[in-house]
TrEMBL record:
This is Alcohol dehydrogenase. Signal peptide: none annotated. Residues 22-140 form the Alcohol dehydrogenase-like N-terminal domain. InterPro entries: ADH-like_C, ADH-like_N, GroES-like_sf, NAD(P)-bd_dom_sf, Zn_alcohol_dh. It comes from Paenibacillus athensensis. The lineage of its organism: Bacteria, Bacillati, Bacillota, Bacilli, Bacillales. Residues 193-307 form the Alcohol dehydrogenase-like C-terminal domain. The keyword Oxidoreductase applies.
Amino acid sequence: MTTALIMTGTGTVVASEIESRGENVLEILQTGICGTDRHLYQGKLGESEPFVLGHEVVGIIRKLDNPKTLLGDRVEVGDRVILAPGINCGLCNNCILKKAFCENRFVYGFTPFSDSKHPELNGGFAQFLDLKPGSKVFKVKEAIEDDRAIFTEIIACAVGAVEKITEVKQLSQIGKCLILGAGAAGYSNFVTAEHYGLHASLADINPEALRLAEKTGVSREKLINLAETQDLSEQFDAVIDCTGHGEAFAKAIQAAAKGGVVIEFGAFAPTQPVKAFDFWEICRKELTVRGLSETLDRNFPMALRIVEATPYRLEQLLTKSFSLADSQAIEQFLASAEAGKGKIVPLSTT
């Protein structure tokens, strides 16, 4: 039996003992607490059946009885890996025709137990995780510390945002890029945009979020305090909105230059209203607006390279560390809008 934190309903996380039943098992070293975990906990993504939270996972392969069912890198027992959270069925119409938007997609840390009477180790807020067939794992170099490695999943998402931009414009055509929101999602998009050579700025209304970004090495001239800077009209060839607030979409449209690209990072919950704005602006400026919701497995190798290469001190964004015994404190963090990023380091199993 192993300890796991099960979200049994909106605003409720329960520590439980679950039996591992996997042929391949991952011992979890750390799991990042994502903004989406907060949205799930707060009920902003709707009600859900019970499941184990957590999808930003770094761990060690501890059991490997059927390695042929795993995809990604070839691994052995003892390898430290990052887990790509999504598994597509490969059989539905969307998988066959679009190679995306799987109708039966399983996602660690999102998908409810297949049988509520028999809980599964299907999320990262646990000591161990049972790796389902089709899981993709990617080896982490020894030089990359765990505190940096847990940013891989969100940076893989950010690589997808840059890809969306390049589907419309060549990177050489992007003069300035604005990232709205300096939380972990926005910060990771900023780091990724800079890795690709974009002249990026990071904006937020929360001075604490900007202070944390500066602590990681982001220079002040690249930071914009939206509480002090009111007019960003038509200054940026690309805008990526990562605020988690629907009202910021209007700000993204306003900030985009003529012929610009706006990426909605999928960070705001569908229950939040979008602030009214002049839709004519999209036509007048001939903007391209793209959405992003899925993490593509193919982006994980690039994300790991960015995590290793970036000069920014990613680990400085981590402000809270919890063990699985800290379930009450974890719930308080999930319920809050506190700046910074949290992580869960499970209790030692040795």
